[in-house]
Amino acid sequence: MNRILRRAIVKARKSGLLRLVPAAGPVRLDCLAEKCAKCCTNLGTPAVTPAEAEKIGYKFIQKDKNRMYVRSKDGLCCLLKNGLCSRYWCRPRGCREYPWYNINGRLYYDSGCPGIKHDKDQRPDISDIQPFENYFPLSAAELLSDTSPE
Ligand code: SF4
Ligand code: SF4
User: Where in the sequence is the domain holding 96, given as residue range(s)?
Assistant: First the structure.
């Protein structure tokens, strides 16, 4: 596992995030946006595709072991300004899909996201969520483990 990813997972788990559970019943996201920004401040910097890097601007991108990520500043995503994403219109797909995850074709959500509600069923279609391997070079067992990587 590369160092950026390891740091991100440890930080996310310490903050209560990246606790993935199957979306087996009614669940929706009611994002608290700038009043929260917990995902932007605790999940580490997002992985980006070459097309996303071009839209965001290469000066904001760093490379690590053949993968590209948004740069971090003081340990946070450098695109976060005053609790909001300064490149919201072209934010990476992983940011747009959070808190939903596609693990082996099954929909999961991050139960640590404070915007998760269970009063209505507004689960996205699994086909709209990219497989987690696209941005987490881990096995499903590693991703679902409650143990932080050391
Ligand atoms: S952690 Fe959840 S509620 Fe908070 S900003 Fe991210 S998506 Fe919204
Ligand atoms: S790219 Fe934008 S939405 Fe994604 S973590 Fe950074 S500030 Fe948050």
Answer: 3-144
